[in-house]
Amino acid sequence: MKGTNLNLSFSLEKIYENANFEINDLDKVGVVGVNGAGKTTLFKVILHEQELDSGKISVLNKRIGYLPQEIILDDKDITVFDYIMAGRPIKKLESELVKLYDKVAVAPLNEQNKLLKEISKTQSKLEYYDYYQAENIMLKIIDDMKIDASMLDMKLCDLSGGQKSKVAFARLLYSNPEILLLDEPTNHLDVTTRSYITNYLKNYRGMVLIISHDVEFLNSIVNKIMYINKSNHSISIYEGNYDVYKKKLAHEQELKEKRIIEEEKEIKRLEEFIDKARKASQTNHALKKMGKDREHKLAQKLASLETRDKKYSKLKLNIKPNREGSKIPLKVNNITFHYENKDNLYNNLSFMISNRERFLIVGENGVGKSTLLKLIIGRLKPTTGSIWYGNKTDIAYYAQELELLDLNKNILENIDTKDYSERELRTILGRFLFYGDDVFKKVGVLSPGEKARIALCKILLTKANLLILDEPTNHLDPETQKIIGENFKNYEGTIIVVSHNPSFASEIGINRMLILPTGKITNYSDEKLNYYYELNKE
């Protein structure tokens, strides 16, 4: 794949300016850059969903598979099985082939050659998709990814976020692409599925481009990093994994800063000499002439002076509860729950949370982690049992799929509350990197990372003393993850969290963890989080 002289702007905002890159057929490439640099936009250009102002990207007619960050369904009633099967358009191609044979049977001689070429082309596509073995291939992928047979007849829209991500990846693999474009592929995934995907991508005989904030995932797969620089709108390729790239970039920036400092010193010396020459007597022709020469040299220096990369603002998060919570904020008493016509997710599950505790819920995709949080906040009711709250318990909830945001309202409308003036809200939004007219953008057009920041902002505004967090680090860059991790660590309240992010769990100081579906509660350790699925088998 080769990008040549890419130029793209949205209104007055430049995305790429004469950007170039080249990657090889078997490269595994991590695509990185700050929010808004143009990472997802690059994927849209490759997929012909976004036109460049000028320049081109050449992919040599290779078949491209794309896993978006958000799974958007056109058909709300599609089943898991039908969704995966649609990864290979075999039925459509077979139907086209029948029509072509019908046409060629009655076509005049002068049209038959054209139709025969179309038949050959369609037949080649069917052979590429291995249509005789396609169903067996699909079933093997389903089995390898441990997608339960009972899930296949379910509607895709009824699945958890992690289950949707797993199914979407299975469909992508089944589609048999030559190039994979993956946008945050590990969001929502349990450890088992993540491990399978990591191994699959390591051994994948094709090109892979991965946009990810998951540093560990990138380090284990990629051999190159594509860095999209928002400051100068360029694209650079670095050999090595993410950690190697960070060291190389830091070294480049250090050398660049030294060059700029030396150039600035030289410019200052020239300016001082020119000023001295201008003030000299008109009869001092030699000094005047030297001053003119220095003016010419100064103009050249200023024109070629490197510019420092812009320092982008960091999210400022400072969540404080309005009041001290109850000594026992929450008790879950012998709850049982199941969805209609489904088996129980929990049987007589009980636990008690202490004030200021950090409580982690873990388990493979589909065991009911998000459902348990929805039971705790009252969006669902237990089949049997009860959930008790302390009389000083104030709850705030962060939803995994960000479904609490109103996509048809703008940012300001989404966080509007009577407790704050518009001026105060806009100041707070500034801490979450939404400035000026940004606050009037419709939430529906924002990136998942931007939506995540709004959801965090809503939590800050509640000043709750019990935070219920469902995968709060998904969609966020490593720096922002660290900021919220530090803040939650110092938060003077209680946290119940679902997360598959070990570094985040360690950062906030987890005390205990609940392992589903067993209902076992154990003291926290990194090792137990990484291997909780083994504990499920006990």
Q: How many strands in all?
A: 18
Largest sheet, in brief, is: 6 strands, mixed
Number of DSSP helices? Answer: 18
What would the principal axes of the Cα set say about the shape?
A: flat
Please tell me the overall pLDDT: 89
Structure description:
The chain is α/β, with parallel strands linked by helices. It has three domains: 2-69 and 78-88 and 129-240, P-loop containing nucleotide triphosphate hydrolases (Rossmann fold); 246-304; 330-535, 3-Layer(aba) Sandwich (Rossmann fold). It contains 18 helices and 18 strands. The protein has helices spanning 39-46, 80-85, 90-106, 109-128, 134-144, 161-174, 191-202, 215-221, 242-279, 285-304, 369-376, 411-415, 422-431, 448-462, 478-490, 502-508, 526-530, 532-535, and strands spanning 2-10, 13-22, 28-32, 54-58, 64-67, 179-183, 207-211, 224-229, 234-239, 330-337, 346-353, 358-362, 384-389, 395-398, 466-470, 494-498, 512-515, 520-523. The strands form four sheets. A six-stranded mixed sheet has the order 5-6-7-3-8-9, sandwiched between helices. The protein has a six-stranded mixed sheet with strand order 14-15-16-12-17-18, sandwiched between helices. The protein has a three-stranded antiparallel sheet with strand order 2-1-4, with no helix packed on it. A hairpin with a 2-residue loop joins strand 1 (2-10) and strand 2 (13-22). Helix 3 packs antiparallel against helix 4 (109-128) and helix 9 (242-279) packs antiparallel against helix 10 (285-304). The protein is flat and about 100 Å long. 31% of the residues are buried. Residues 533-538 have low confidence and may be disordered.
